[in-house]
Amino acid sequence: MLTLEWESEGLQTVGIVVIICASLKLLHLLGLIDFSEDSVEDELEMATVRHRPEALELLEAQSKFTKKELQILYRGFKNECPSGVVNEDTFKEIYSQFFPQGDSTTYAHFLFNAFDTDHNGAVSFEDFIRGLSILLRGTVQEKLNWAFNLYDINKDGYITKEEMLDIMKAIYDMMGKCTYPVLKEDAPRQHVETFFQKMDKNKDGVVTIDEFIESCQKDENIMRSMQLFENVI
Amino acid sequence: MAAGVAAWLPFARAAAIGWMPVANCPMPLAPTDKNKRQDELIVLNVSGRRFETWRTTLERYPDTLLGSTEKEFFFNEDTKEYFFDRDPEVFRCVLNFYRTGKLHYPRYECISAYDDELAFYGILPEIIGDCCYEEYKDRKRENAERLQDDLDSENNQESMPSLSFRQTMWRAFENPHTSTMALVFYYVTGFFIAVSVITNVVETVPCGTVPGSKELPCGERYSVAFFCLDTACVMIFTVEYLLRLFAAPSRYRFIRSVMSIIDVVAIMPYYIGLVMTNNEDVSGAFVTLRVFRVFRIFKFSRHSQGLRILGYTLKSCASELGFLLFSLTMAIIIFATVMFYAEKGSSASKFTSIPASFWYTIVTMTTLGYGDMVPKTIAGKIFGSICSLSGVLVIALPVPVIVSNFSRIYHQNQRADKRRAQKKARLARIRVAKTGSSNAYLHSKRNGLLNEALELMGTPEEAHVGKTTSLIESQHHHLLHCLEKTTVSPSPATPTPPPPLSGFRTHILKLVQLQKSKSVPFRVKSSEEAPEEWAVTEVGPALPCSALRPHPTLHPSHGPFSVTEAKGSACQSPSSNGQISRSCYGPQRRISGGPTLVLGDAL
């Protein structure tokens, strides 16, 4: 008998509990009461960051582009990134569209760091123009400086073999697997060895900025190829 | 590569400088931009609405009309803009495609108009963006179905010349409106189905008592009459089934079809009953077989459109019905279990087992509430109320889907019927238009000749007697004339003396005929006939010579024209001395000495 009573009692309580929970949920749904303090809607508002670039005249003074060139560049930039800044993911996406056959994410990551001079995780139009100004309108010295900056991943002023290997692997990744002749597995490593043999004058295992610039200036091919993209804009 | 990303190409190229120091081999030369002109604004005038964009924007897609040199064909030198005589609304979408790289489909546009515009601008519809692609495909499918419907109904209406007896019979069965016999058959079978169903029903009604025994149903009181009725119906049904079987184009498929199964099920009980009347044990089972006679009512679906639609809807909503059934079953089991345990404690509870609780749950969830099983404990009542609330929800959910399916199919059928009804009116309109245009053609022929004749006479004011036709109409008629000239062969001439002339009319006739003969492409052969052509001048009162002067081709000095036997050589200017430079215009002329008046009937 007792068990029967307990059963019915138990079920009664269960029933009442179910009803209370359901009504609480209903009230929450109707928005009359709130359980958690922070709701999701606030987070969305933080995500959209907008950035407006400096005035056209200022940019013209800072960079070596003409007004018209800046206009064309900004139009393309704004079209792709209406919010005014490029974050790393968008950057990688854009860059990967140019190299569909391989994986360009690693190289794009290094490139992003090279463009993002103030290291705030986003490339604004000013950073973009600054980088392009050096690459397209700068002196050979400046360009080599920029390239050194790109290779020097941790920005300590020295290019180590590991850093160079990372860069080289990233470049080879961009090529993809469908090359002819098929690249060997250790091709990046060999390439790094060749590079260090050429660049590292005092054979101390690292390449400083002066060694780098000196060696590059001695190489005809490199000098010529630096002038290659002069008239891109 | 997307259009927007093309703007980043200079950046990617500049970033390539990062590879230079590590490169082993020398780099290839960069392509030079030969005609590097400053980016300029292009004005596109679409039916008066001006759109402006950069030239480079349009050149992003060089294999479309706007991106290639094809647009130069539309360049207007005077206004220095590109003019397109097309819809500006759709052009907005097209231009946005160039700007953003995404092609959108506006919902308010007609699908065929949109397709036409896309085809004009050389854009493939497949690149419509994901946001609008579904809508586009749906509308396109609907349109295609409608066209297919039209085509099918058209094919059905066509009278196929030679049908075998079997095919005529099958067509008669499927479409009772094709012939009177079919209609009669249709109504007769319908009547007998109704009779059969009614007898089935009336059979069971208690019919009053025969003295000395209990209340009898009508079926047993008048068993002979009912038996005769049943026999008659079954005979008709059997005959109908055999005829359909004979006429069916594919017998195997017919046998497997739903309607034929229903037919068989409807008549089988009778035959089985005939065979098994003697055996007493089986007659029990035989009685239950009678219940299948009610399936005869399904035979009505051949007669009723709505019933067919209902059946089709249920078939197409099979998944929704399945979902409904499944969710109901789940809910029933859950609630039955809960109710059973809740009511276990109470005394004299009707909830003796879980399967017994199923009945309560079903009745509650479908909101029937018979009241034969009622919970008595508090917990039972709480859970019972939750059960009924959830029942309403679970049943209400799949129902709108089924309803909307039914509505869609029903309206489709309605539209098809409406189209068929309007088809007659449509065809009549088309016929009127056709005859109207051919009448206009004949009319213009008359008027054209009349006009020319009047011009000849030098009476300018009367030259406007004929009805003025538009340029397009006159060109169209000219074309039809040429066709006539091409196809009609000249008949050999029979020299007949020109009929006596009198009056102005005949003047006109002769003049016209004279003129027409000038334009005739055939070359008059014998020189002796030639003078006869000009013989007209003798006829009738003297015509002013000036009247004849306007004929450029009429040179008295011109010698013989030779009649060619060539048939169908119309519209060819004959060589040599022939100078029939006038292209074909005018009714078919028969050459020779006495040109007969083809024109006579027209006037």
Description of the molecule:
Chain A: It holds the Pfam family EF-hand_8. The complex is a heterodimer of chains A (233) and B (603). Chain A has 233 residues and is mainly alpha-helical. Helices cover 64% and strands 5% of the residues of chain A. Chain A folds into two domains: 85 residues, EF-hand (Recoverin, domain 1), CATH 1.10.238.10; 93 residues, EF-hand (Recoverin, domain 1), CATH 1.10.238.10. In chain A, helix 6 packs across helix 8, helix 6 packs across helix 9 and helix 9 crosses helix 10. Among the domains of chain B are: 116 residues, Potassium Channel Kv1.1, Chain A (2-Layer Sandwich); 139 residues, Four Helix Bundle (Hemerythrin (Met), subunit A) (Up-down Bundle), CATH 1.20.120.350; 119 residues, Helix Hairpins. In chain B, strands 2-1-4-3 form a four-stranded mixed β-sheet. A two-stranded antiparallel ribbon of chain B has the order 5-6. Chain B is flat and about 115 Å long. Chain B starts with a helix and ends in a 55-residue tail after the last helix. Classes of the chains: A mainly alpha (233), B mainly alpha (603). Chains A and B meet through helix 1, helix 4, helix 5, helix 7 and helix 8 of A and helix 2 and helix 17 of B.
